[in-house]
Each structure stands twice: as structure tokens, then as C-alpha cells.
Amino acid sequence: MAVVERSTNQLDFSPMHARMQFYIDQNILSCCNTLVMRGLDVVDFKTFGYMDLETRRPLREDAIFRMYSNTKLVTSVAAMMLFEANRFGLDDPLSEYLPEFAHPRVLNRDAETIDDAAPAQGPILIKHILSHSAGLSYGFIEPQSVIDRAYGASGVSALNMPGLTLQSLCAKLAPLPLAYEPGTSWRYSLAADVTARLVEVLSGQSFDAFLTQRIFEPLGMHDTGFHVPESKHERFTTMYAPTNFMEPMQGGLVKVDDPAQGAYARPPSFHSGGGGLVSTVSDYLAFIRMLVNQGEWNGARLLKPETLTLMRTNQLAPDVRVNIRMWKMPHTLFGLGFGLRTAPTEAEPATVIGEHFWGGMAGTHTWMSPAANLTGMCMTQRMPGFWHPFSHEFRDFAYRIAGER
Predict the structure, then answer these.
(1) Rg of the chain over CA atoms, in angstroms?
(2) What angle do CA 249, 251, 253 make, to 5 degrees?
(3) Domains and CATH numbers, the chain
(4) 8 A C-beta contact, residue 182 and residue 124
(5) Alpha helix stretches (DSSP H) within 262-354
(6) Closest by CA position to 321, among listed 337, 342, 336
(7) CA distance 371 to 306
């Protein structure tokens, strides 16, 4: 059983634990775990709730979670490992390696159909796909928009991609127009999946093989991958959705993915760089420790410190900010795979400046604050669970109890 080792500390996290238990007791979450790290030492880790609501088996410390968009951090690291090997430059046109993206078109302002588009004024650069500023979309964030309707009709919406591979996704995606001129705005998108295909082309390996050989095995991440084998089904959490999507603090859950019969029960054809991984707390902690420890962990160096500094540097054009219609992210820019905090809100400490973070749709969240020497991870399996109040409260408690003001 893979467990998380805790260091000895004198901090009282009981108020945070009580609040997380509230979410379980109110049937808002089926399960939850929280982990706080100061430096490289885990000062608090606790599990709450159940592997599934049907049997109410307590959540295991080695439970396997659907990581969804936490996968994007891994994909960005994979790409930047190839950057360090001089396989590409950030200002290289994407089409130099993926020729299908050679002639991008851009939707005209106020376009009413997908055909209302004109040739782009410039190419998509690799730094654009790593920072979600290429003009690609996701197909579900704004379902009534012209661009997302076109994604759905073309079979490249992130919520409906049966039978695709990374190669066939790019072949379908490239002819669709961009939402804006490359590099001029920010839009959450399938860019991480395009990045995963870039990794395949540059490395000569399938994306899953590259991750296993170059990241998971060196870091000892033995429970991380794109499916859960039958021998591990008892450790795989069940995923639920709220009965009322419009009220995040209202209780009531319904099962939407079963460990033994669901989407992760067999190896997929599509190894999504944007959201395909499953992992455990101890596995993902090894990955996060590598990032906090300037690119090295478990005796393996994946990245140089200066590469991580570059990844944590804003890549967006002046006056462009991160904005997802359904989630407000104040004072946020974007680097090469990370959201970046540039200022605190009124209720936050100044040490949030420089925090880099991202999370997954089903409620797996990770943030790292160099100024506070503090890292937080919390995981649940609630669809949707990204940017949910439980994760904000966890973060607030962690800064208040363990951080510096």
C-alpha cells in the first residue's frame, strides 16, 4: 500500500479537517483528501469520505483518482524535457513539426457560422499551445458559441471524442478556424492534446510510452497511467455528479463513472495530454515534489531549474488575462502549463503572488507558492469539481495555518 509519509509538526489543522468533513456529511462530496507541504515535507495529509457511496468503504490513502486537467502539468513537463534537448524552440511555428497546422484560419468578428473566417495573420507558435493562447477551443466551455458548436459537430469536443488518437484529433482539429489570432488572447482548449501529439512526433514514441519511460518510472509513479487494470479496481474511486449543477453547495450526488465498467476500465486509443491520466496522492506528490525541488526527485532530474523558471513566467500578450466564463480567476496569467497568480485578493496574503497552479474537472487541485514555501493538493471525484468552494476553502485554511502572511 503506497502511503504518504508525514513529517512531525506542531500545526493544528483540525479546523480545516472539520470543514472538509462538512462537505462529506452534507453529501456535496463523496470523498476528499487534503495534503499540505512546507518545503518538501508533508505537514498534513488526511482522507475523508468514501471510495463509493454504495458500499461506503472509507477512502483509502492509496486510492486512484481521475486526474483530468492535472494531466496538463505532466504534458507540459514532457514537452519541456524535449525543449531542453533542443528538439524545438518556443517561437518555432507549430507547423514545422505538425504540418496540418500550416494554414490556420481565424473566425471573423461577429461570425455566425464556422465558414465566416479568414487566413490568420501569423502562425501558431509552440509557446501558444503551451499557454492556451493559440486560438484553439475545447468544445464545451461555451457550448452555444460558433467555435464550440463546430468542435462538437466535427467530433473534437473534449466531452465526445470516441475512437480518436492524438494524430487523428490533430487531423480533425487543424482545418477548423481559430477563435482569435494566435497569441492575442487566452482560451482554455485542446492545446495540451496538441502538445501531446508534438511529444509523440519529436520523441518517436507514443505519448503514453514517453510518459512512462521518462517521467513515471524515474519518479516511482507506479499507479499513474491512462487506465486502471482490473487488479487495481478496488482502489479506484467512483465518480459522482451533483443532482443540481447550478448549486455547488447543495447536497445530492449521482454516480456517473464506475470503476469496473467505466471509461478507465480498459486501455484507450486516445492518450489525452489534456485530461487522460489517473493517479494517486503519493504518485502525484512525487511529481509535484520534483517541481518544487527545481526539477529533481527520487534521484532523477527531469528539468533544469532555469526551465522551470521559464515555465512559471507569463507567456501571454500584454493586457491578456486568464478568463474562463464559468470560473472567475482574478489576477491570473499563464506560463508554460501553469496558471500564475500576480496579486492577492483582499482576503489573501501577499505570498500568493507567484503561486502557480492548475486542477482537474473532477476536483483534483494543485498549487505551489514559492513565497510562502507552501504547496497544497486536494482531490475529490465530483463532476464538475474544478474551482469548487471546497478547494478554495482548503487553500484558505492552508495559507492561514501553515503559510506566511
Answers:
(1) 20
(2) 120
(3) 14-75+208-402 (3.40.710.10), 87-205 (1.20.58)
(4) yes
(5) 281-292, 305-311
(6) 342
(7) 17
- If you search the block for the grid coordinates 485554511, which residue do you land on? 397
Q: For a pLDDT cut of 90, what percent of the chain falls above it?
A: 89
Give per-residue pLDDT as tens, 84-140: 999 999 999 999 999 999 999 999 999 999 999 999 999 999 999 999 999 999 988
Residue 405 pLDDT > 50: no
* Dihedral pair phi/psi, residue 117, rounded to 5°: -145, 160
CB 198, CB 98: distance < 8 Å: yes
Which pLDDT score, from 0 to 100, does residue 160 have? Answer: 67
Q: What's the pTM value of the predicted model, to 2 decimals?
A: 0.96
For the ranges 155-169, 262-276, 328-342, 366-380, which has the lowest average pLDDT?
155-169
Cβ pair 23, 368 in contact under 8 A: no
Residue 297 φ/ψ, nearest 5 degrees? -160, 150
Residue 167's nearest CA partner among 129, 193, 203 is: 193
Rounded Cα distance, 221 and 25, in Å: 32
Q: Residue 333 and residue 316: Cα distance in Å, rounded? A: 7
Count how many Cα atoms sit within 13 Å of the Cα of residue 175 in the half-sphere of its side chain. 9
C-alpha cell at 328: 472567475
d(CA 236, CA 67): 12
Secondary structure (DSSP) of 220-260? T-TT-BSS--GGGGGGBPPEEEES-TT-TTS--EEEEE-TT
Q: What pLDDT, in 10s, does the model give residues 166-224?
A: 999 999 999 999 999 999 999 999 999 999 999 999 999 999 999 999 999 999 999 99
CB–CB of 124/104 below 8 Å? Answer: yes
